[in-house]
Amino acid sequence: MKQRATGYVLYGSRNSGSAAVEAALDMAKAPYRIVDAATWRKKDDAAAFAQLQRVNALHQIPTLVTPDGTVLSESAAILIHLGLVHPRAKLLPADASQRAQALRAMVFIAANCYAAIGVIDYPERWHGKGDKAADERLRKGARRRLHKLWCVFADAFAADAAKNKAAFLYGEQPGAADLLAAVVSRWSGARKHLAKQRPAFHAMLERIEAHPKVAPVISRHWGAGTVPGP
Ligand SMILES: N[C@@H](CCC(=O)N[C@@H](CS)C(=O)NCC(=O)O)C(=O)O
Fold first, then answer.
1. Is 3 a member of any domain?
2. How far does residue 164's CA lie from ligand 1's centre (Å)?
3. For the segment 50-89, what is each residue's pLDDT rounded down to a tens digit?
4. Which of 55, 183, 209, 225 has the fewest C-beta atoms under 10 angstroms from its C-beta?
């Protein structure tokens, strides 16, 4: 049975992908509470982790439970849903063809970049436990692939915006695609690579994070300062 609640419940943790959803909820001015849970925190708070496992068999964050009890996992799906139910937050572009590109951009990030990070973080899930050398090889390859994927993203989605001197991917304020790009590009040396290889896109990511509607969430998760290198 679905439970009625006053707001959203966001399963998430510091320095994680839940930051993008938190920022979207803030932009939508939607009430929510955070359950601090994550794979790497299961020993610190077993009860919260068990709750997360009950709603998401993959126990990944972000996972969002909507006020009517619907469970949403998958960052792109969550952000698209929030964009649709909170149109005033302007998380998705109003123009249909721009919106199509924004959806494509978010699915690109989730399916390609976020997935590569899953390989880097948990290589043993892909080839079994107990072979440290294979872990390292897989990690290295996935990291190289991740850096290439971000360059492809910059060329496919951000080059036009940069050419038109637009501050963000779509529109005059950061939208859902900007939030996901900013958060997921923080890991595995992607920013350092982009600073060198795609400086205009790198500057856009910094602009997204500095926007007054985004900066508080970024500093809650990562504190002040720049993205660390490797
Ligand atoms: N496909 C998922 C990936 C989410 C994901 O990998 N989240 C990480 C944290 S940033 C996680 O929970 N990892 C722990 C695990 O996979 O056990 C999405 O797009 O939301």
1. no
2. 34
3. 999 999 999 999 999 999 999 999 999 999 999 999 999 9
4. 225
**Ligand 1 near 75 CB (within 6 A):** yes
How far is residue 11's CA from residue 212's CA, in Å, rounded to a whole number? 24
- Any atom of ligand 1 within 6 Å of the Cβ of 39: yes
For residues 109 and 208, state if they share a domain.
Answer: yes
Q: How many angstroms does the Cα of residue 61 sit away from the middle of ligand 1?
A: 5
47 domain-assigned: yes
Please state whether 165 falls in left (phi above 0), alpha (psi between -120 and 50) or beta. Answer: left
Q: Specify the pairing of strand 71-73 against strand 63-65.
A: antiparallel
* Ligand 1: nearest atom to the Cα of 73: 20
pLDDT, tens digit, 9 for 90 and up, residues 116-128: 999 999 999 998 8
User: 190 with 150: CB under 8 angstroms?
Assistant: yes
**By residue range, what is the domain housing residue 46?**
8-89
- Is residue 42 located within the same domain as residue 113? no
Does pLDDT of 208 surpass 80? yes
Tokens of 170: 């779509």
> Among positive and negative, which fits the CA dihedral 59, 65, 71, 77?
negative
Q: Which two tokens stand for residue 62?
A: 């972000």
The pLDDT of residue 29 is 98
Q: Is any atom of ligand 1 closer than 6 Å to the C-beta of 171?
A: no
The verdict on 109 and 211 lying in the same domain is yes
Is the beta carbon of 67 within 6 A of some atom in ligand 1? no
**CA 27 / ligand 1 centre spacing (Å):** 22
Give me the phi and psi of 222, to 5 degrees please. -120, -5
